[in-house]
Structures are given as C-alpha cells and as structure tokens.
TrEMBL record:
It comes from the Bacteria. This is Peptidase. One of its GO terms (molecular function) is peptidase activity. InterPro entries: Peptidase_U32 (IPR001539), Peptidase_U32_C (IPR032525), RNA/ubiquinone_mod_enzymes (IPR051454).
Length: 494
C-alpha cells in the first residue's frame, strides 16, 4: 500500500476572513464558494481576488483551498460555468468540488491544473461509483452522509490508494439523502440546488384536514408544536479514531454559513484531535515530527481473514441501508461472520487491524458544546445510533457567548490586551481565550484597569463593537476569540 499523508482536517469558509481564520486555527484545507455555482448562497462567498489572496495565505501556511462548483447546472448556465472555471484556474486554488459529470469533464479540459473532488450531492455509496469517477479524473469522493463506518472501510479497501475519501465529521445534517431536497423550491421558490435553501425542514408543521380548510390541527411534541423534519447535528469528536481507522482521508466540518468563531473553535478542536490520534498511534511525537509514515488500518486483502474477526462496526453494518426496524429486538443476531460474506453476497467486508482507542483530553471533548448547536448525534456512522430529529424545537442550543476579539497585546505595564467587544464583560467574569493548538486560556476580567479606546477608565465593558483594553499578563495572539459561559443557557435562531 502506498503511504498516505496524515488525515486532513477540512474547514469551511463563507468569506475571506473565514478562510484565514480556518488556516490560523490549523486547517489543512479550506473549502469555500465563489459568487456563483455553489450550494451556499447565504455566505458572502469569495471573489476571484479573494481566492488569489486566500490561496497565497493558505499556501504560505501549508494549507490548500478547494472551491465548490457543485450545483446541477441548467442548460443556460453551461457557458457561464465554463467561463468561471477558466477564471478560477489561475487564482491559485487547488481543487474544484463538483457534482455534475458534465462539469467534471469540462473542468478536466478547461482547468487541467486543478484537482477534482466529487461532492456529497453525487450520492456516492459504493466502490463501483468511486472507481468510475476515478477513471473520469476525480481524485476524491465526498461520500454520502448516510454511510456507516463499515461501508467507508469497504470503499477504502476497493479503490486506488491515491484516491481520497472525504467524510463529514461535524455539523448540520439534512433530512434529504445527501442534501438532495426539493421542499424549499416547492414551498418558497428558493432553489436548494442553487444555494438558496430556505431550510423548511426546520419549520414547525401542523395538519389540515381536506374538508376543514383553515382549521389547523397541531401535532404536538411540546406545547409549541413539532418539528418533524428537523435533524440533529453531527459530532464525531469522541469517535475520531474510528473514523480515521475506516480509511477516511479528509474529515470535513460542515458550516460555510457559520461565524468565524465557529470555524476557529471547531477547526482547532478537530485538528488537535487528529494530532492526538497521530501521537497515540505512534505516527508522530508530541512536537509533530514523523516517527513512521501514516497508513490507515483497513485490511484490503481477502486472504487476511485468518481469525475471521468481526468487530462491532462490522457486526452492525447489516442495519445501514436494509431498514432494520428493531435492531435491538429480542434474540436478534445481527452478526456477519466474515466466512459467510462471500457465500451470501459475493462480497467480503474489509477489516481493520486492532488498536487501543484514542483518548482525548476533557477540554477537547467539551469544545463542541461551546458553539451553538442542535442536539448532537453520530450521524449514520453507527447503525444502532442513527441520527434522529429534534422534534421539540428548531433553534440552536447555546451555552457560551463570544464576548470579544483580540486586536493586540502589549507587554506595557505587565501586559495589556486590546479587544473589540462583542458582548458584556464585567470585573470578576471568567473568560476564555481560544488559542490555536492549545487548550483555552482561562482569564478573569480584572477589577480595575479597564479603559476605553481613548484611554479613559471604565467600570466594565458594556458597549458591543467598541474598542477596550485591560490588564492581561499572558500574551495572547491577535484575532483570538474571547468567550464566556452564559448565565442561563439559551436557544438561538442560528
């Protein structure tokens, strides 16, 4: 097997600031959209000039930039896409993310210097599709979000070693298969395929009986109604080892519409988790120096089943797409002994070489709870624990607030930090600085020494979007986010 590079942490960005933030907090690559032909229109997205500047910045820091061009184009958009690809090829970006096969073939001709990745909207669920796309020039497939871990292993074992597998690791899930949903277009005229989804899956629904028009019958999960399509978010932080062991090359954080703080916090968390994996599995030392080349643990050879080992992930794989109604029913045996695979289906599941689980520090496990989120799940990776809906609300849960952003730090007077305020900070309040590659730095707002932009003393910071400074003995980096636990957890719209 060809040795692969270490697992990639792929972060989202909705604008140039988000791209730079992702790189600063450790992203190996950043995916973002241009002003057209991407599946997210809500973010401001990047101009061609932004792509040039962002690519330069990313490359200077050892990161790469991928551009989404993943709509299914209409006939009257084909010429414009061709022009767009021609413009993109000279901006310094590294890859295009496409869904449409026609666009893929066009990109090979118009922008042959760019790597081609096939979007999750293509719905790749098997190695046959992945291999066909490889033959067409794709060097990465973003698997359908509905895949379980055993299916990921099996694809890894049956595709070329130089083809990447990208899987989602964190963020919003969709009620439609791989995001292919028409509800928004039908109800609002806003086309999800062109990045304008109104997210009607998050709305509250009631019943109306045909002969009683206008008479609404609530379907109550709570007094406020029910949200029958509203899926949970994904969080694989506690299972990062299983995902990497499955052969995933790239771990994708969802969220191009999210804030710079979300990008910083989740990129930092997952990058640190991957580093922990590399150290605990013996690929790197604590300083990140290579001890041995990284290679995934997927067993590719069918002859390597000497003990017919069936682990829990393999055992659960029968439940993935087969619609098991009650996987925990009495006496049900869901095991799939390896020696029976070939007899039953002509296919034998890939195994992994056993290894101790990777243990993450508590602060890292807590990080996903410090951004706004819906209830977390592990998506479809573990069939016994599939993603479900939040039927009682559509809003996000928030326990932490961004209270400021570091503008500068000076050693004068024993150390002083200048911040742009975002929310209230008062003496005695416990605040955390979000630092790249490190646990958050706890800091207590001092009882005195707070000054406004003009140097006048103030009792507290209570004006958002204003500049303040305060004593801080520890040097903190520019642009570091400052956050604080809310006094009462709240629900927010987004």
């Amino acid at each position: 097997m060809k040795h692969r590079r270490k697992p990639e942490v792929l972060a989202p960005a909705g604008n140039l600031r988000g791209l730079i933030t992702a790189v600063d907090y450790g992203a190996d690559a950043v995916y973002c959209g241009g002003k057209a032909f991407g599946m997210r229109s809500a973010p401001k997205n990047l101009s061609l000039e932004d792509f040039e500047e962002g690519s330069r910045y990313a490359h200077e820091h050892g990161a790469r930039v991928y551009v989404t061009c993943n709509i299914l184009p209409r006939n009257d958009e084909v010429k414009a896409i061709e022009q767009y690809l021609g413009d993109l090829k000279d901006t310094g970006v590294d890859a295009l993310i496409v869904t449409d096969i026609g666009v893929l073939m066009m990109a090979r001709r118009v922008a042959p210097n760019l790597e081609l990745h096939v979007s999750t909207q293509a719905g790749v669920t098997n190695y046959l599709a992945a291999n066909a796309l490889y033959e067409l020039g794709a060097r990465r497939v973003v698997l359908a979000r509905e895949m379980d871990l055993q299916a990921v292993r099996d694809i890894r074992a049956n595709i070329p070693d130089d083809m990447d597998i990208e899987t989602f690791v964190h963020g919003s899930m969709c009620m439609a298969f791989s995001g292919r949903c028409l509800i928004s277009n039908y109800l609002t005229g806003r086309d999800g395929n062109h990045g304008e989804c109104a997210q009607p899956c998050r709305w509250k629904y009631s019943l109306v009986e045909e002969k009683r028009p206008g008479q609404v019958f609530p379907v109550n999960e709570t007094n406020d109604g029910t949200y029958i399509f509203n899926s949970q978010d994904m969080c694989m932080m506690e299972h990062i080892d299983d995902l990497i062991d499955s052969g995933a090359t790239s771990l994708k954080i969802e969220g191009r519409s999210k804030s710079a703080y979300y990008i910083a916090a989740m990129t930092n968390a997952y990058k640190t988790a991957v580093n922990e994996y590399m150290v605990q599995r013996g690929f790197e030392d604590e300083e990140g120096h290579e001890l041995k080349p990284f290679r995934d643990r997927v067993v590719r050879s069918a002859d390597n089943y000497e003990d017919n080992r069936v682990d829990s992930i393999m055992q659960e794989s029968a439940q993935s797409f087969h619609g098991m109604v009650d996987p925990e029913g009495p006496g049900e045996d869901l095991s799939i002994p390896a020696q029976e695979d070939t007899e039953a289906t002509g296919f034998r599941h890939a195994q992994t070489v056993p290894a101790p689980p990777v243990t993450l520090p508590d602060w890292l496990l807590e990080e996903p709870g410090k951004v706004a989120h819906r209830d977390y799940s592990t998506g479809f990776y573990y069939p016994r624990q599939k993603v479900t809906q939040n039927t009682d609300r559509s809003s996000y849960f928030r326990e932490w607030l961004v209270v400021g952003e570091v503008l500068s730090w000076s050693p004068e007077d024993g150390g002083r930090v200048t911040v742009m305020s975002r929310n209230k900070m008062e003496p005695g309040q416990l605040v955390e600085f979000l630092l790249p590659g490190q646990p958050p730095l706890e800091f207590t707002v001092p009882d005195n020494g707070i000054r406004d932009e003009d140097g006048n003393p103030v009792a507290l910071i209570n004006n958002p979007a204003h500049v303040f400074s305060m004593p801080c003995a520890v040097e903190v980096p520019v642009n570091a986010a400052m956050r604080s636990r809310t006094k009462k957890p709240t629900l927010k719209a987004a």
